[in-house]
Amino acid sequence: MSARKDHAAVLFSGGTDSTLAAAQMLEEFDRVTLLTFDPGYLLFINNTKVHAKKLAAHFGEDRVTHLILDIRHYIKDILGGDPVEDIKEYGFNLSSLVCLGCRLSMHAFAITWCLENQVPYLADGSIRAQSTIPEQMETVIRRNRRFYSQVYGIHHFSPIYEESESDQRLDELGISGKRKLKKQFILFDTQATCVFGVPADVYGRLFYGKLVGDTREADSEQYCAEKYPVMVDTIRDTIGDDDAVKEAVDKLKAIRRNDGDLGPSQGGESAFDKALDSAIGGI
């Protein structure tokens, strides 16, 4: 077995998917920081501490850190940058795309955190079974992943994408304190409730995911393309300037090269990046 890498971050909702993703990352990394984001409209966000504490108890207090971070300023800039124009462009489909904008805001803050803390590995708990929601579509994940790698030197993972029974896997690992957590809806024992997430999920499952043909794919690609420059600006403004961002990115690439995760070329393109280029044919 190869040696574990040092440090990774995980977008952590406290649900079974992100908890299992964190558990898998802890098999590969010495330390994992769980990033829980408060966009200002989540209820019961302290529920996320339940599985965070169980992960720390299972893998070691010194290996698991849990942070709850206020990202309302990122939400304002990225998700809420031009709501009137978004409504004109996407109409009622925006009720699902708002979750994608929220996820991109979270990823932008996570990228900033990774740059500031020299952590070049970032994971989330996306799964194919929830791909009716745009932010968990495989094409969206691959496009985002390529963007994060090429622009910021960050290797993004969705380590449990093909898993549909994460609650059972956690029970088998002895991490979950309650069975059948995936049956919960709206009110959860281990994660927050999003006031926008419930209607977006219902709309995605009943209509947007099945009945609109290629519209969802085209909307998602266009929406990401519109939000990427805003993400870049927001991240740069937080870090300082373009030179500060470049310096931070260079440090992340150096860590990945030392880990054998990135090629030695100046651009740092790895087999990982090339495979993504082939898969999605560009951003």
Blueprint (SSEs and pairs):
Layout: E1 5-11, H1 16-28, E2 29-38, E3 42-43, H2 49-59, E4 64-70, H3 72-79, H4 83-90, H5 94-117, E5 121-123, H6 138-152, E6 155-157, H7 166-173, E7 193-194, H8 197-208, H9 215-239, H10 242-258, H11 271-280
Helix pairs in contact: 1-2, 1-7, 3-5, 3-9, 5-8, 5-9, 6-9, 6-11
Could you characterize the architecture of this molecule?
There is one protein chain. This protein has 11 helices and 7 strands. The chain has a single domain, classed as HUPs (Rossmann fold, 3-Layer(aba) Sandwich), CATH 3.40.50.620. By secondary structure, the chain is of the alpha/beta class. The protein is globular. α6 links the parallel β5 and β6. α3 packs across α9.
Keywords:
single chain, 283 residues, alpha/beta, Rossmann fold, 5-stranded parallel β-sheet, two-stranded antiparallel sheet, 7 strands, 12% strand, disordered C terminus
